[in-house]
Amino acid sequence: MSLIQNMMLAAIVSLLPARATAGDSEIGDLRQRFLQAEQAISAHRESDYRQLAATLKTYPLYQYLQYQWLKSRLSADDEIRAFLAENGSSRYAGLLKPKWLAYLGEQKRWPDFLRYYQASDESALQCYAGQAYVETGQTPEAFVLARALWLSGKSQPNNCDGLFAAYQASPYFNHDLVWQRFHAALKRDNPALAEYLARFLAADELPRAELWLKLHRQPEAIQTETGWRNQPADAPEMLGHAVERWLERDPGAAARYWDQEKAQQPIAPDRAAFIERQLALALALKHDAQAYPRLSRLETDDESSREWRVRAALNSQDWPNVLTAIARLNSEEKSRDKWRYWQARALAAVGQGEAANRQFVELAKNRSFYGFMAAAKSGQAIDLAHRPLQVAESELQALSNRADFQAANELLVLNRPAEARRQWQFAVAKLEPNLLPVAAKLAQRWRAPALAIATVAKANHWDDVELRFPLEYSREIGQIAQERQLDPAIIYGLIRQESAFDSQADSPAGAKGLMQVMPQTGRQIAADLHDSWGDDDSLFRPELNLKYGAFYFKKLLLQFGGHYALAAAAYNAGANKIKRWLPGSQALPADIWIENIPYKETRGYVASVLMYALIYQQRLQRDSLKLDDLLREVMPG
Predict the structure, then answer these.
(1) Counting Cβ atoms within 10 Å, is residue 358 exposed (0-12), middle (13-18) or buried (19+)?
(2) Alpha carbon distance 373, 595 (integer Å)
(3) Which of 161, 163, 459, 485 is deepest in the core (most CB within 10 A)?
């Protein structure tokens, strides 16, 4: 290694944050050699890697180093077998094994594959396993896997083609399975797969398949397309499928057509009941006046239909029917803060003020969005009821000495938060339940708030408010709040809900960082602020993410007239959706509007952000942001 490279590595190590082992010269030396070994792996310098690795066997990240070496050398059978044998229960063995199995499958080394294969959720490995069974004469096992993969309705990886070809050529396969997969694909809204499967149908079956595809893509065409009535075996399901698809676009029209046609088709009672429920829920999501009566007529219901029955009555402020709908909840549902709050609101509205106030006073003891609203209704102050976890120093020390936690700590020291999170999750998943609170406090000590929050939730301990609602990034948030003229509590509330202080949070949709800023939004904000834009991963930098997230929220707040609930909803679901969800003709109380947000995620999101903002008001010892500020009446759009 060159002198310059050594100097760069030394500089990196010198800048690493201090933690439990930072003062130990031995661990510091191991850490530098670990970084050098990683460079050797990247540069494919095998001799340097092996020389350095031999000195790192006591280092907490030795297995991680081996994994990095072996995952790009999957032909090294002996080394991989030895690694799996020695570290079988480790996280890195679990990561390496599927990669090696995929390699063995690609190489068609079927006996070796089956020797190490265990049941997997990965379709590609399942297909390799099925092919391995075929090639080794274990056809029953092969075609059990093939049938499940075939009927999943999903498009499968290319390596499944060989298994499917063998399955289709076997006595285990029949033509009806083509139709079963065709219908499974449509149920999964995968018309491309259904269209592909049509090539396996006979010529006289193609019109039937084309009709199914047309009704899937244009469900309203069932009104004018007469061909479905001439398919007696399919007609009931064609009607049901078209109505289910149609209700996503126009539930009112779908409901009217369903009511007109359902008696003319031999639809199974369970299937008819399911469609009735879907129609009623779709109408409720559209705030249609027919929602409450249809929900009330359901012969069988579930939690969702019971709750939307209450919401439909709330949306029209039909307080007697709110009470009737709450009475139809089951006992567990009735005990929840949400429905206790609405019961009290309804009691107050029908003139039972004393009973309502008693319920508000009792509910105000709870640290929840509905408890906080109840406190405001009954004139009480919010009580956070902070009870810190009590953990002995010896317990913290013992846990920090475990190998899995030492590895997580080293990754934190090396400023690799995403890998540290994954290692921490692996370590915590193996813990005895009584040690989860210890782990939460250990993460808090290590200044890893996201890990602490996730772990204390796993422990079902909710009363350590300081642990659950940390004050990280206080300097940056204070400065940004001042620049954007925002209360810092609302920024904290957004961070707590969006990422729970995980600066490396990366959502499936692509949102990144503390405030989960989408890259497209980040690029636009950079242009608005005349900032240079690096790349999407720049949003993982806390200071930039906070700057852009606060800018975007303030923009939404101004767009929605300073209405915090609307701005929070728009931050989650997008401004265009919020415009569509505004009341049609009359203003609505904000609590009713929030309760009737069609998206479950956004409904919970808004309640949580507002609740967290109120908690942070107390944590920051501020009183500038009141519940009335957060819950102004929602005006018609």
Answers:
(1) middle
(2) 13
(3) 163
Calculate the alpha carbon distances from 565 to 501, 570, 623 in Å. 21, 9, 18
Distance of CA 257 to CAs 241, 264, 268, 282, 295, Å? 13, 12, 18, 15, 18
Q: How far is CA 573 from the centre of its chain?
A: 14
**Amino acid identity, residue 273?**
A
Which residues contact residue 536 at a Cβ distance below 8 angstroms, ignoring those fewer than 6 apart? 510, 512, 519, 522
Closest C-alpha among 543, 546, 520 to residue 533: 520
Please give the distance of CA 150 from its chain centroid, rounded to a whole number. Answer: 27
Reference 520, options 539, 493, 503; nearest CA is: 539
Q: What was the pLDDT predicted at 585?
A: 86
**Tokens read off for 59:** 């280092």
Contact 473, 488 (CB under 8 A): no
The rounded distance, in Å, linking the Cα atoms of 12 and 7 is: 9
Q: In whole angstroms, give the CA distance from residue 95 to residue 93.
A: 5
- Residue 4 has what pLDDT? 37
- Residue 505 and residue 514 in contact, taking contact as beta carbons nearer than 8 Å: yes
For residue 234, give the 3-state DSSP assignment. Answer: coil
Which pLDDT score, from 0 to 100, does residue 637 have?
A: 86
In the chain, which stretches have pLDDT less than 50? 1-23
Cα 635 to Cα 520: distance, rounded to the nearest angstrom = 30
Question: Hey, how many other C-beta atoms are within 10 angstroms of the C-beta on 377?
Answer: 21
C-alpha 130/C-alpha 127 separation (Å) is: 5
Burial class (CB in 10 A: 0-12, 13-18, 19+), 347: buried
pTM beyond 0.70, yes or no: yes
Looking at residue 514, what DSSP letter applies? Answer: T
DSSP 321-382: HHHHHHHTS-HHHHTSHHHHHHHHHHHHHTT-HHHHHHHHHHHTTS-SHHHHHHHHHTT---
Which residues make Cβ contacts (< 8 Å) with residue 630, sequence separation at least 6?
564, 565, 590, 610, 613, 614
What residue has token string 């061909």?
Answer: 227
pLDDT at site 410: 98
Neighbours of 414 (CB within 10 A): 19
Contact 134, 142 (CB under 8 A): yes
The answer to whether the CB of 316 falls within 8 A of the CB of 292 is yes
Torsion of CA 571, 575, 581, 587, to 10 degrees: 90
